[in-house]
Amino acid sequence: MALIKKPMTGMKDILPREMEIRDYLISLIKETYGAFGFTSIETPAVENIANLSSKQGGENEKLIFKILKRGARLNLEDAQSEEDITDGGLRYDLTVPLVRFYSNNSANLPSPFKALQIGPVWRADRPQKGRFRQFYQCDIDILGEPGNLAEIELILATTTTMGRIGFKDFKIKINERRILKAMAAYSGFPEEEYDTVFIILDKMDKIGLDGVREELLKEGYSEESVDSYVKLFEGIKSAPDGLSYVCGVIKDYLEPDVSDNLKEIIDSVSGTKEYDFEVVFDPSLVRGMSYYTGTIFEIEVPEFGSSVGGGGRYDKMVGRFVGQDTPACGFSIGFERIVTILLDNGFEVPRKADKTAFLIEKGIRSDRLCEIIREAQKLRGEGRSVLVVRMNKNKKFQKEQLENEGYADIREFYLNPINK
Questions:
Q1: Residue 40 and residue 138 in contact, taking contact as beta carbons nearer than 8 Å
Q2: Which H or E run includes 123?
Q3: What is the Cα–Cα distance from 110 to 114, expressed in whole angstroms?
Q4: To the nearest 10°, the Cα dihedral for 76, 77, 81, 86?
Q5: 303 CB contacts (<8 Å, ≥6 apart)?
Q6: Omega of the bond prior to 112 within 30 degrees of 0, cis?
């Protein structure tokens, strides 16, 4: 069998320039989130297939890379279905592993617990720009905080990180799953049809309100229900305060504190933000994961034309493991999409240490080589980054490459320095 030098479809080799940006981002993200009290954890890449297939991951559960049983447990002859030959899978996100981690270790964790997790996940998805089959996610979550302080802290920590990276004029779109359900109930849609209605609503940014109306009618819903639903969105758009308007209209279908809770989050974030962004109520925001129970939010960056992060409250997930619900809320940055934007924009990593290169001519005496290396060690001890390499025949091209990599100080060492 011939060896293949290209990576598997949907996966990629990462060259030094991109790796430098990725390392810089991870360092900045950890530093910023650490200032908000989040602590790093790590979970295994492989999770039990029962956890990954628990109908909490939405469409992602169709994209699992499943792992065959090993050794004597893999009995292909007697297998009747896929479940008989698989027992694990590569994680498709970091939330399901986090909830399992918390369920297993909560006795040894503070309450509330503020978790930071950065790591690769895998989905058997169709690759495209900014979307891969192996990619990094970056999540922060707060478990054990029932009030909206969790949402406020998560949004402020995430937007501070976005601002420190250099993003401006972005939006945090925010909604509430209970408002989504109350709007559907007010309009007369059957409860068992909510998911279908929300899937269509989620296309609003692509097909517009007229397109949503048309698709709902095609799905067979009554014109009365569809018109009532559409009028809610029209009223929100024309009202000075869309959140207060819709919650007033649907108040008979909505818990009384939902509107005040969401308004407090918006006002608190808007009143204390340090960077240039806007928090907006978006009644068409759905978020696909079925585990969301309350507030949901997304980051919209003009440069990318779509979401580069999102999250929400998922108060029922821990209860699936331990039998008792635990308040939980999280926010995920689209790490790969941000890297793509920075690469496309020619982003340069800020230099924290001076970068020096020593070019040594081949054949130089060993005692002189030791002197050069000692000099390099001294500079490294002073906090400088020093690269020691042999001088190439095409020295001009070599120096150009080093300059492109940020080596502003290039020193040359020759066999006969007097003649150089």
A1: no
A2: none
A3: 8
A4: -20
A5: 341, 344, 345
A6: yes
Single pTM value for the model: 0.86
- What is the reported pLDDT for 297? 95
pLDDT value at position 408?
85
Alpha-carbon distance of 123 to 251, in angstroms, equals: 40
Going from the C-alpha of 255 to that of each of 17, 144, 148, 316, 317, the distances in angstroms are 51, 22, 15, 18, 21
Cα Rg for the chain, rounded, in angstroms? Answer: 27
What is the maximum alpha-carbon separation in the chain?
Answer: 93
- The pair of three-digit structure tokens given for residue 304, joined into one six-digit string: 């990318």
The residue among 279 and 306 whose pLDDT is bigger is 279
**Given this model, what pLDDT does residue 406 score?**
81
**Phi, psi angle pair for 74, to nearest 5°:** -90, 100
Q: Torsion-angle region of residue 219: left (phi > 0), alpha (psi -120 to 50) or beta?
A: alpha
Residue 127 vs residue 255, higher pLDDT: 255
Q: Which of 140, 112, 163 is nearest to 311 (CA)?
A: 140
Token digits for 210?
A: 């007229």
Measured in whole angstroms, how far is the alpha carbon of residue 240 from the centre of its chain? 33
